[in-house]
């Protein structure tokens, strides 16, 4: 399942550089996560790095992009190929 950033985001800029897949970018008002690039850090780390550094805890799972661990690993392999 991909992650998403809620409107509680304070644009602190700490999540974007932590994403190994470059899935996070500045949106019109807040940062956004590209679900096609988000693997929840599967293949890179044990836990999503953006969630670890977010000071306001505004990065939950995106219910519209549910994926299994195997699907996230497959996406990681495609991105890093």
From TrEMBL:
CC terms in the record's Gene Ontology section: cytoplasm
Family annotation (Pfam families): Fer4_7
PROSITE patterns the record matches: 4FE4S_FER_1, 4FE4S_FER_2
Keywords recorded for this protein, A-Z: 4Fe-4S, Electron transport, Iron, Iron-sulfur, Metal-binding, Repeat, Transport
Residue ranges occupied by any 4Fe-4S ferredoxin-type domain in the UniProt entry: 1-29, 31-64
GO molecular function: 4 iron, 4 sulfur cluster binding; metal ion binding
NCBIfam families named among the record's database cross-references: di_4Fe-4S_YfhL (NF033683)
Entry-linked PANTHER family: PHOTOSYSTEM I IRON-SULFUR CENTER, PHOTOSYSTEM I IRON-SULFUR CENTER-RELATED
Name of this protein: Ferredoxin
Native source organism of the sequence: Marinobacter oulmenensis
